[in-house]
Amino acid sequence: MKQNDAEKDTILEGVLAEFAKLAAIPRKSGHEKAVSDFLKDYLTGLGFTVTQDEANNIIADKKASAGFEQAPLTILQGHMDMVCVAEEGYAYDPLKDPIKLVRTDEFLSAEGTSLGADDGIGVAEAIYIMKTAKDHGPLRLIVTTDEEQSMTGAIRLSADHLKDASFLINCDSENYDELTVGSAGSLDLDFTRELKRVEPETSAAWQIEVKGLRGGHSGERIGDGRGNAIRTLAMILTELAKKGEIELASLTGGKARNAIPNDAKAVFVTDIAKEDIEAVIKDQQERFMQMYGNVEQQILVPLTSIEAPQNVLKAGDTQRLLRLLTILHTGVYSMSSVIPGLVETSANLGVVNMSEDEVEIQFFPRSAIDQKLDEFRQYAETVAALTGFTAHIGTQSPGWKENKDSRLAKIVAETFAEQNGKPMKVETIHAGLECGWHFRKNPKLDMVSIGVTTKDIHSPNEHLVLATVKPQVDLIIETLHKIAKL
Ligand SMILES: [Zn+2]
């Protein structure tokens, strides 16, 4: 074996050995105690100074190598939790079962489940680097909890762990040749209204479904011009209501605030004739394809005759709900005036849940500019007042504003180009990163986000590209060398 290959194998095997330790411990978001305890003991055993905080975040410090004590403190950061999903029919208890690793020449994946390379591989490489790097300044590893759900770990992390550092390398990105230097903030907005129900006046009952849409992540895909199933269904019902009375029994759709809804369903009674309902659906399907046909393959709107429901919403409640669902702007608001092609502000009409006596709508604006999110608070209150709903203003996650003068971004980009013979793609993303919270606590902290290449994250098909592990480790180690000599 040539020396180069041997070195490559040492690094890859070393990082994968760290990853295997994490994969053995169930670590679903919100259930990180076991993995946090493991990290505390393991990193202490390696000789680092370790703190476990109240949110189960782990902070581990390693002294500078001899001669580099004066170098600026650099943080390596990742998250310990993972999204746990399994193939249909695969027996998997995310609170008890370890991840079973499957390795080929090219990829690492998991048997039947998500792999947790997001962000286990980021944490594994950071631990490997903490263990093996030489000639570096003071290092700190921060491993947070609950990133995938609510970023509780990053939110609760004490500013004390960030204030004495100059640089932070977040290891939670998905492409080894991309350098992320900014992210968007977001605001959790909900609208609720109590419902009054009455007996239906007619007995002809129908179910309309809107499905077949692409959906997708509301940060990454909102600029693609995809259709929204909830809005489309609300438009169909609004048009129908112009033809005659419709009494709504239920309207539901979407799965998560941050996912573009790809299905929605309504049950209603009406005496509008079947062919008139079908004509409205056909019109709206055509309108939809005019608007989204370049992006969406199809839209299916099956109409089914069903048994009459026991009760329906009072007419006023139906009207208010449809007004709200058609007035809430969903999609792109504005594009960045600085970065071509980047969405600056967007909102996603994500979920409608309905019970017997309440309806809840989840709405999710994102913006690169925090002050725009302040405007959404007012917007929510105004829209709620106009439509008879109550607005609930939830967590506002801060954006991470791009720093044009970032020394760290310059070092990382230059090092990548030297090592790989091609430039790194530098980007600001229209999605949230933990860096937003770090930025709020220490606006002077110079940060980048990078990562080993992973595909299909948050799905049972999640896999990582083994060939990108060593380049990523080399990039971080050489960056640390350059920082040590600053
Ligand atoms: Zn992640």
Characterization of this structure:
This protein is an alpha+beta fold. It has two domains: 3-183 and 400-484, Zn peptidases (Aminopeptidase, 3-Layer(aba) Sandwich), CATH 3.40.630; 186-367, 2-Layer Sandwich (Alpha-Beta Plaits), CATH 3.30.70. The chain is built from twelve helices and 23 strands. The protein has helices spanning 3-23, 33-45, 117-132, 152-156, 160-163, 229-241, 274-292, 315-327, 370-387, 407-420, 435-441, 469-484; strands at residues 49-52, 58-62, 74-79, 101-103, 107-110, 139-144, 167-170, 178-182, 185-194, 197-198, 205-210, 246-253, 264-270, 303-306, 312-313, 331-335, 343-354, 358-367, 390-397, 425-428, 446-449, 454-455, 463-465. The strands form six sheets. A six-stranded mixed sheet has the order 1-2-6-3-7-21. It has a five-stranded antiparallel sheet with strand order 16-17-18-9-19, covered by helices on one side. It has a four-stranded antiparallel sheet with strand order 4-5-23-22, with no helix packed on it. Helix 6 (229-241) crosses helix 7 (274-292), helix 6 (229-241) packs across helix 8 (315-327) and helix 10 (407-420) crosses helix 12 (469-484). The longest helix is centred in the N-terminal third of the chain and has 21 residues, at 3-23. Bound molecules: zinc ion.
